Amino acid sequence: EVQLQASGGGLVQAGGSLRISCAASGFAFDDYAIGWFRLAPGKEREGVSCITNSDGKAYYPYSVKGRFIISRDNSKSTLYLQMNSLKPEDTAVYYCAKSVTSWYMGHYYGFDYWGKGTQVTVSS
Fold first, then answer.
1. CA-CA to 112 of 20 to 30 Å: which in 3, 26, 64, 95?
2. Residue 36 contacts by C-beta under 8 Å, 6 or more apart in sequence?
3. Nearest-CA neighbor of 5 among 97, 107, 110?
4. pLDDT for 48-70, tens place per residue?
5. How many alpha carbons fall within 13 Å on the CB side of residue 9?
6. Sign of torsion, CA 25 115 109 38?
7. pLDDT in tens, 9-53
């Protein structure tokens, strides 16, 4: 059974930092690209960052580039997202998701399994 469990969210002031994690199980973690998405009330699901299975190639949209850093530890089947210089608009539930390939980092429909998510709230 594929499972993706995000954790580490919380309340932080604007300008602060937070590190969230995603523990994966039930599949060959190092065979797939893994990504973070977020969902805020009244907004569409947004891709935050993705990383390929082994070469470390990552994607960041302009909204988070330079502030967020994605990483993975394949030996621990764990995905991380270091979030720095947080802004109130970063407030959302953050989900980790498994790509259908080792490299795909595009649209959300290219991810076939999703975690439960962790809430990140940034106060102004």
1. 64
2. 20, 22, 47, 48, 49, 50, 70, 79, 81, 94, 95, 96, 97
3. 97
4. 999 999 888 999 999 999 999 99
5. 20
6. negative
7. 999 999 999 999 999 999 999 999 999 999 999 999 999 999 999
